[in-house]
Amino acid sequence: MGAAGGLREDFGADELRRLAAKVKDAAEARRLLALAAVRDGMNRTEAARIGGMDRQTLRDWVHRFNQYGPDGLIDIKPTGRPSKISDEQKEALKQLVETGPDPEKDGVVRWRCVDLKRVLGQRFGVDLSEVSLGRALKKLGFSHISARPRHPVQDPEAIAVFKKRMARPVASGFFECAMIGLLQRIRPRTKPGQDGDTRVPVLINFAASGAIF
């Protein structure tokens, strides 16, 4: 690498520093400053120290810069592992969930991840884990729903009767009558209290059957 470090000639040191001041990524800015130092004739070791890298890494970024320009100094995010199911298979999975299982054919009344895993394996030969299948379903707009627990000796008829009773409207004037009955159980003291206040109420004891709860 010569004085200019083999850099392309259409970017000067001042222009590289101006780009470093504008970019938002700190790593990209350090690389631009290191290349600006190379453009000024600084040796590789010192220029690499400015960019927080070693000489070999600086050499790699020089090649990226010469090929792609300043955009070549941006970190390329890994794409990650490709999906095991294609878009067509995802669409088939979506329709399968929306349609629901056939109890006679599929042997279940509602889909579980383990059931869908088995169906995908039979139809498409895809070996997908339940966790990955759950993520795929979430991306398709579905959510996991757990069945509500039910007591083994629960009486459906008794539950229906209870719901009907709770749904009945409250009789008109019920609360007014209740308040009147409660006030009738409160009497003022006939004699002044120790503080001379006759407005202190006292509760009259009645039978428990006549109490309001």
- Please give the share of residues in helix: 40-55%
Shape: elongated
Weakly predicted, low-confidence segments: 1-5, 200-213
Structural class: mainly alpha
Q: What is the residue-mean pLDDT, rounded to a whole number?
A: 77
What is the strand content? under 5%
How many strands, what sense, and barrel or not for the largest sheet? 2 strands, antiparallel
| Helix/strand order, N-terminal first | HHHHHHHHHHEE
Count of folded domains: 3
Distance N to C terminus: 94 Å
Counted beta strands: 2
Separate helix tally: 10
Task: Output the radius of gyration.
Answer: 40 Å
Query: Which strands sit side by side, in order, in the main sheet?
Result: 1-2
Describe the structure.
There is one protein chain. The chain has 213 residues and is mainly α. The chain has three domains: 13-73, no CATH class; 87-139, no CATH class; 174-210, no CATH class. It contains ten helices and two strands, in the order H-H-H-H-H-H-H-H-H-H-E-E. It has helices spanning 13-22, 26-39, 44-50, 55-68, 87-99, 103-106, 113-124, 130-139, 156-167, 174-184, and strands at 186-188, 201-203. It has a two-stranded antiparallel ribbon.
SSE inventory with pairings:
Blueprint (H helix, E strand, L loop, with lengths): L12 H10 L3 H14 L4 H7 L4 H14 L18 H13 L3 H4 L6 H12 L5 H10 L16 H12 L6 H11 L1 E3 L12 E3 L10
Antiparallel strand pairs: 1-2
Helix pairs in contact: 1-2, 2-3, 3-4, 7-8
Compose a concise summary of this entry:
With 213 residues, this protein is mainly alpha-helical. The chain contains ten helices and two strands; from the N terminus they run ααααααααααββ.
